[in-house]
Amino acid sequence: WPRLTGPFHGSGCTLAAALAARLALGEPVPLAAERAQAYVARTLAAAFHPGCGAAIPRRLGDGNAESGR
After folding, report:
1. pLDDT above 80 for 65
2. Considering the domain boundaries, does residue 1 fall inside one?
3. Which of 3-17, 22-36, 44-58: highest mean pLDDT?
4. Measured between alpha carbons, how far is residue 37 from residues 44, 53, 55 in Å?
5. Is the pLDDT of residue 66 over 70?
6. What is the count of structural domains for the chain?
7. Which residues contact 42 (CB under 8 A, 6 or more apart)?
8. For every residue of 6-60, which 3-state class applies, written as one string?
9. Are the C-beta atoms of residues 39 and 33 closer than 8 Å to each other?
10. Which of 6, 34, 38, 45 has the fewest CB atoms below 10 angstroms from its CB?
11. What is the DSSP secondary structure assignment for residue 5, as one 8-state letter?
12. What pLDDT score does 39 carry?
């Protein structure tokens, strides 16, 4: 995955939650991990920058960010 510059806050939590959700749906681990990483990459690419602090993953984007299917 391409490395994004700048500080982020919440990317690890977002990845853990996305992976847990995919596994709960019954997806195999490799597929769940790939889809969770793709989801996190999208949330970070569209991150919210609240000011001079760390950017926050935009988890509630346009409603299509979670699908990844």
Report:
1. no
2. yes
3. 22-36
4. 10, 23, 18
5. no
6. 1
7. 61, 65, 68
8. CCECCHHHHHHHHHHHHHHCCCCHHHHHHHHHHHHHHHHHCCECCCCCCEECCCC
9. no
10. 6
11. P
12. 92
